[in-house]
Protein backbone atom coordinates (compact mmCIF):
# COMPACT_ATOMS: atom_id res chain seq x y z
CA UNK A 1 0.00 0.00 0.00
CA UNK A 2 1.33 3.46 -0.91
CA UNK A 3 1.97 5.77 2.04
CA UNK A 4 -0.87 8.14 2.83
CA UNK A 5 0.04 11.42 1.05
CA UNK A 6 -0.98 13.38 4.14
CA UNK A 7 2.13 12.08 5.89
CA UNK A 8 4.30 14.14 3.50
CA UNK A 9 2.51 17.23 4.85
CA UNK A 10 3.38 16.17 8.39
CA UNK A 11 7.06 16.12 7.47
CA UNK A 12 6.83 19.51 5.77
CA UNK A 13 5.25 20.94 8.90
CA UNK A 14 7.93 19.27 11.04
CA UNK A 15 10.57 21.15 9.06
CA UNK A 16 8.84 24.44 10.04
CA UNK A 17 8.57 23.21 13.64
CA UNK A 18 12.29 22.49 13.94
CA UNK A 19 13.17 25.91 12.50
CA UNK A 20 11.96 27.63 15.67
CA UNK A 21 12.39 24.74 18.10
CA UNK A 22 13.67 25.34 21.63
CA UNK A 23 15.37 22.25 23.05
CA UNK A 24 13.08 20.40 25.45
CA UNK A 25 14.16 19.70 29.06
CA UNK A 26 15.96 16.40 29.66
CA UNK A 27 14.30 13.45 31.40
CA UNK A 28 16.57 14.10 34.39
CA UNK A 29 15.12 17.62 34.65
CA UNK A 30 11.56 16.41 34.12
CA UNK A 31 11.65 13.91 36.98
CA UNK A 32 13.19 16.52 39.29
CA UNK A 33 10.29 18.88 38.79
CA UNK A 34 8.59 19.86 41.98
CA UNK A 35 4.98 19.79 41.05
CA UNK A 36 2.69 16.79 40.75
CA UNK A 37 1.45 15.60 37.40
CA UNK A 38 -2.04 16.32 36.16
CA UNK A 39 -3.14 13.40 33.98
CA UNK A 40 -6.20 13.64 31.74
CA UNK A 41 -7.82 10.43 30.51
CA UNK A 42 -9.93 11.17 27.45
CA UNK A 43 -11.24 9.79 24.17
CA UNK A 44 -9.22 9.64 20.95
CA UNK A 45 -12.00 11.63 19.24
CA UNK A 46 -10.53 14.97 18.09
CA UNK A 47 -13.70 16.78 19.19
CA UNK A 48 -13.01 15.74 22.77
CA UNK A 49 -9.33 16.71 22.88
CA UNK A 50 -8.56 18.54 26.16
CA UNK A 51 -5.49 20.15 24.57
CA UNK A 52 -8.04 22.16 22.58
CA UNK A 53 -10.97 22.71 24.95
CA UNK A 54 -8.82 23.38 28.05
CA UNK A 55 -6.27 25.25 25.88
CA UNK A 56 -3.53 23.25 27.60
CA UNK A 57 -0.07 24.75 27.63
CA UNK A 58 2.99 22.67 26.87
CA UNK A 59 3.71 20.09 29.59
CA UNK A 60 0.80 21.36 31.69
CA UNK A 61 -0.91 17.97 31.73
CA UNK A 62 -0.29 14.47 30.47
CA UNK A 63 -3.04 13.44 28.04
CA UNK A 64 -3.92 9.76 27.91
CA UNK A 65 -6.31 9.15 25.03
CA UNK A 66 -7.99 5.90 24.09
CA UNK A 67 -11.33 5.02 22.51
CA UNK A 68 -13.97 6.05 25.02
CA UNK A 69 -11.53 7.44 27.60
CA UNK A 70 -11.41 4.20 29.58
CA UNK A 71 -9.17 3.72 32.60
CA UNK A 72 -7.62 0.57 31.16
CA UNK A 73 -4.81 -1.46 32.73
CA UNK A 74 -2.40 0.41 30.47
CA UNK A 75 -3.69 3.79 31.65
CA UNK A 76 -3.14 2.61 35.23
CA UNK A 77 0.36 1.45 34.23
CA UNK A 78 1.13 4.97 32.97
CA UNK A 79 -0.24 6.52 36.16
CA UNK A 80 1.96 4.17 38.21
CA UNK A 81 5.07 4.99 36.16
CA UNK A 82 4.51 8.75 36.41
CA UNK A 83 3.81 8.43 40.12
CA UNK A 84 7.00 6.50 40.81
CA UNK A 85 9.45 8.20 38.48
CA UNK A 86 8.89 11.81 39.50
CA UNK A 87 9.42 13.61 42.77
CA UNK A 88 5.84 14.60 43.45
CA UNK A 89 4.10 11.87 41.47
CA UNK A 90 0.58 12.15 40.14
CA UNK A 91 -1.51 14.73 41.98
CA UNK A 92 -4.65 14.88 39.87
CA UNK A 93 -6.36 12.49 37.49
CA UNK A 94 -9.13 13.92 35.32
CA UNK A 95 -11.49 11.61 33.45
CA UNK A 96 -12.98 13.55 30.57
CA UNK A 97 -15.58 12.07 28.24
CA UNK A 98 -17.57 13.76 25.48
CA UNK A 99 -21.12 13.65 24.19
CA UNK A 100 -21.88 11.80 20.94
CA UNK A 101 -18.98 9.40 21.60
CA UNK A 102 -18.72 6.42 19.27
CA UNK A 103 -18.30 4.14 22.27
CA UNK A 104 -21.73 4.92 23.73
CA UNK A 105 -23.77 3.90 20.70
CA UNK A 106 -22.31 0.47 20.10
CA UNK A 107 -21.91 -2.59 22.30
CA UNK A 108 -18.95 -4.94 22.52
CA UNK A 109 -21.21 -7.70 21.15
CA UNK A 110 -21.90 -5.58 18.08
CA UNK A 111 -18.18 -4.90 17.68
CA UNK A 112 -17.59 -8.65 17.75
CA UNK A 113 -20.14 -9.09 14.97
CA UNK A 114 -18.42 -6.34 12.95
CA UNK A 115 -15.09 -8.06 13.59
CA UNK A 116 -16.40 -11.34 12.25
CA UNK A 117 -17.42 -9.64 9.00
CA UNK A 118 -14.61 -7.12 8.57
CA UNK A 119 -11.74 -9.33 9.65
CA UNK A 120 -13.29 -12.49 8.32
CA UNK A 121 -12.60 -13.93 11.76
CA UNK A 122 -13.57 -17.51 12.26
CA UNK A 123 -16.17 -18.25 14.90
CA UNK A 124 -14.65 -18.11 18.33
CA UNK A 125 -11.70 -15.94 17.33
CA UNK A 126 -13.19 -12.59 18.31
CA UNK A 127 -15.67 -13.79 20.92
CA UNK A 128 -14.74 -12.54 24.34
CA UNK A 129 -12.64 -9.64 23.04
CA UNK A 130 -12.96 -6.50 25.11
CA UNK A 131 -13.38 -3.28 23.14
CA UNK A 132 -14.48 -1.08 26.01
CA UNK A 133 -17.83 0.05 24.62
CA UNK A 134 -20.10 1.52 27.31
CA UNK A 135 -23.48 0.16 28.23
CA UNK A 136 -25.80 1.53 25.55
CA UNK A 137 -28.16 4.23 26.73
CA UNK A 138 -26.21 4.93 29.91
CA UNK A 139 -25.64 8.63 30.62
CA UNK A 140 -22.16 9.91 29.79
CA UNK A 141 -21.89 11.33 33.30
CA UNK A 142 -22.39 7.85 34.76
CA UNK A 143 -19.66 6.48 32.52
CA UNK A 144 -17.30 9.18 33.79
CA UNK A 145 -18.15 8.28 37.39
CA UNK A 146 -17.42 4.62 36.66
CA UNK A 147 -13.95 5.40 35.31
CA UNK A 148 -13.24 7.77 38.23
CA UNK A 149 -14.04 4.87 40.54
CA UNK A 150 -11.56 2.66 38.72
CA UNK A 151 -8.81 5.16 39.56
CA UNK A 152 -9.98 5.48 43.16
CA UNK A 153 -10.09 1.72 43.59
CA UNK A 154 -6.57 1.21 42.26
CA UNK A 155 -4.63 -0.64 44.93
CA UNK A 156 -1.70 1.78 44.78
CA UNK A 157 -3.11 5.14 43.75
CA UNK A 158 -6.31 4.91 45.70
CA UNK A 159 -4.59 4.32 49.03
CA UNK A 160 -1.79 6.80 48.70
CA UNK A 161 -0.73 8.60 51.84
CA UNK A 162 -0.47 11.92 49.99
CA UNK A 163 -3.93 11.62 48.53
CA UNK A 164 -4.96 11.91 44.94
CA UNK A 165 -7.50 14.24 43.41
CA UNK A 166 -9.80 12.46 40.96
CA UNK A 167 -11.99 14.74 38.86
CA UNK A 168 -14.46 14.13 36.05
CA UNK A 169 -15.82 16.21 33.18
CA UNK A 170 -18.17 15.81 30.25
CA UNK A 171 -17.42 17.88 27.15
CA UNK A 172 -20.46 18.84 25.14
CA UNK A 173 -19.30 18.67 21.51
CA UNK A 174 -22.12 20.96 20.40
CA UNK A 175 -21.22 23.85 22.71
CA UNK A 176 -17.56 23.08 23.55
CA UNK A 177 -18.44 23.46 27.25
CA UNK A 178 -16.86 21.14 29.82
CA UNK A 179 -19.05 20.40 32.86
CA UNK A 180 -17.76 18.83 36.02
CA UNK A 181 -19.09 15.48 37.20
CA UNK A 182 -19.20 14.94 40.95
CA UNK A 183 -19.10 11.48 42.42
ZN1 LIG B 1 -15.34 9.34 22.01
UniProtKB/TrEMBL annotation:
Keyword Zinc included in the entry's annotation: yes
Catalytic activity: hydrogencarbonate + H(+) = CO2 + H2O
Top EC class of this enzyme: lyase
Family statement drawn from the similarity comment of this UniProt entry: Belongs to the beta-class carbonic anhydrase family.
Protein name: Carbonic anhydrase
Species per Swiss-Prot/TrEMBL record: Stereocaulon virgatum
Function summary: Reversible hydration of carbon dioxide.
Domain of life: Eukaryota
Cofactor(s) required, per the database record: Zn(2+)
InterPro entries registered for this protein in UniProt: Carbonic_anhydrase, Carbonic_anhydrase_sf
Keywords of the record: Lyase, Metal-binding, Zinc
Enzyme Commission number, as recorded: 4.2.1.1
Amino acid sequence: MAPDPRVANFLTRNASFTASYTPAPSMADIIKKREPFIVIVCCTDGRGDPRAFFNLQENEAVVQANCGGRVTPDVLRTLHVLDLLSNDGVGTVIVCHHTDCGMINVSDDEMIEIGKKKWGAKKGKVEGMWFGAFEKGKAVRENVKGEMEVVRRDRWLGKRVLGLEVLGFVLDVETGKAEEVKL
